[in-house]
């Protein structure tokens, strides 16, 4: 019974964290769908195609305005990169959209004080500058081009563009069922690619949250000189985040637990910044950009996180802004689901998700080769076999079907699922 109770508690904790950020997930993936369907490549190339300070600053501002959770942010950044943004600009965008956003700052302020909110903003700008420098030094044009080809393949495999709504003005798109159908199919495709990573992340975080504070306290060096403790804490923070963290807003309670348990100011800041290095997201990076570029990106981001946290700790210590009191852990973990702004936003965005998914059900057809859902009315390739019309996401899938129609006509087998998870290249 104790085991069942623990499992129930872990799943309940996972559900509570998922509930806190569900609306942000829907919003982020909807924004990604809009970017993929509506924003011309040439416009993104002009805005974010360069690798200079101006493009990085513009990407940072756009990211902070987009306000996405981590999973949705990487999907948007991948889409922007595939459409022509530089890799540095895309990475600046995705970091800003998870760490420099209004709602995260408010949650951090509520849990552990305004000093952490200010440190998150100042340190975030420092981190983006360090990450930009690292990418300029260690990511060559050749490697960036290879990564873009990976991203374009992922884009083609999970978010096929639809020519049916191209050439429409913004006003026409807002009132066009076809344009919103393009968005809906991209929305559904992104969910189809990452739902396993998202679900596993929440479940892992749910069970990690059940660990007693003594476990976290035992990880901290307490009997060494302050510089050694500082370095240990600032490296430990991201490692804990990698193993336990789910989404940018959702890690604020665990950051508060760490602060209450004795981790340093720099350790908390480093923990907060590591939302884009958790294992499910690194797996997604590999799907998006390939292994070589992902390895360099992870190393650069980890180093930038540590250096930015140490820098902001030094600035705030010199200014006397590091808080001297810590909250109790009990006051942080006893939070449940109630009627508040989160519930209201979830209701609104669940309705948005239902509308988008309903649009794909109304207009969608399953590609018998790869399993993707495509819009029957978007001018997609078709074939007729034994009196039935089949719809395809691309000419590549149509060619495979036409070569062996009897193989695919009866349904979608394991090979199609494997193709989808492998990036579905055409």
Overview of the molecule:
It is a single chain. The chain is globular. Strand 1 and strand 2 (373-375) form a beta hairpin. Helix content is 72%, strand content 3%. Helix 10 packs antiparallel against helix 15 (279-289). It contains 21 helices and four strands. The strands form two sheets. It has a two-stranded antiparallel sheet with strand order 1-2. Strands 3-4 form a two-stranded antiparallel sheet. It has 426 residues and is mainly alpha-helical. The chain has two domains: 2-357, no CATH class; 367-421, no CATH class.
Integer count of domains: 2
What structural category arises from helix and sheet content?
mainly alpha
How many strand elements? 4
Unreliable sequence segments:
157-163, 412-426
Q: Alpha-carbon distance between the termini?
A: 51 Å
Question: Averaging pLDDT over every residue, what do you get?
Answer: 77
SSE pattern, N- to C-terminal: HHHHHHHHHHHHHHHHHHEEEEHHH
Q: Helical stretch count?
A: 21
Q: Biggest sheet, open or closed, and with what strands and sense?
A: 2 strands, antiparallel
- Radius of gyration, in Å, reads 23 Å
Give the DSSP E fraction (strand runs of 2 or more residues): under 5%
What share of the residues lie within helices? over 70%
Report the principal-axis shape: globular
Strands side by side in the biggest sheet: 1-2
């Amino acid at each position: 019974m104790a085991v069942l109770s623990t499992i129930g508690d872990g799943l309940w904790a996972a559900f509570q964290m998922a509930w806190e950020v569900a609306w942000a997930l829907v919003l982020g993936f909807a924004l990604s769908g809009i970017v993929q369907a509506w924003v011309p490549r040439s416009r993104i190339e002009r805005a974010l195609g360069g690798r200079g300070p101006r493009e990085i600053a513009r990407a940072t501002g756009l990211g902070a305005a987009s306000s996405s959770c981590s999973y949705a942010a990487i999907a948007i950044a991948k889409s922007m990169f595939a459409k022509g943004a530089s890799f540095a600009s895309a990475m600046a965008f995705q970091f800003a959209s998870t760490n420099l956003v209004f709602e995260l700052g408010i949650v951090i302020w509520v849990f552990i004080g305004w000093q952490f909110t200010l440190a998150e903003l100042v340190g975030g700008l420092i981190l983006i500058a360090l990450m930009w420098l690292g990418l300029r030094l260690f990511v060559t044009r050749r490697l960036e081009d290879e990564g873009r080809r990976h991203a374009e393949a992922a884009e083609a495999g999970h978010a096929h563009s639809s020519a049916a709504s191209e050439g429409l003005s913004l006003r026409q798109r807002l009132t066009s069922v076809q344009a919103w159908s393009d968005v809906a199919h991209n929305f559904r495709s992104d969910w189809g690619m990452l739902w396993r990573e998202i679900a596993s992340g929440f479940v892992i975080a749910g069970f990690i949250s059940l660990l007693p504070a003594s476990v976290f306290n035992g990880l901290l060096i307490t009997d060494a000189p302050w510089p050694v403790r500082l370095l240990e804490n600032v490296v430990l923070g991201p490692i804990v985040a990698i193993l336990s963290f789910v989404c940018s807003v959702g890690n604020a309670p665990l950051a508060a637990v760490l602060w209450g348990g004795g981790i340093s100011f720099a350790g908390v800041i480093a923990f907060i910044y590591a939302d884009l290095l958790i294992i499910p997201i690194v797996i997604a990076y590999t799907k998006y950009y390939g292994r070589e570029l992902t390895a360099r990106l992870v190393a650069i981001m980890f180093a930038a996180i540590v250096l930015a946290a140490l820098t902001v700790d030094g600035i705030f210590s010199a200014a006397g802004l590091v808080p001297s009191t810590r909250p109790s852990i009990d006051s942080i973990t006893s939070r449940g689901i109630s009627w508040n702004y989160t519930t209201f936003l979830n209701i609104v965005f669940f309705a948005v998700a239902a509308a988008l998914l309903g649009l794909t059900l109304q207009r969608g057809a399953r590609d018998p080769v790869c399993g993707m859902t495509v819009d029957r009315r978007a001018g997609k390739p078709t074939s007729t076999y034994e009196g039935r019309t089949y719809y395809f996401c691309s000419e590549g899938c149509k060619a495979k079907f036409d070569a062996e129609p009897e193989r695919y006509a009866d349904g979608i087998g394991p090979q199609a699922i494997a193709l989808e998870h492998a990036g579905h290249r055409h």
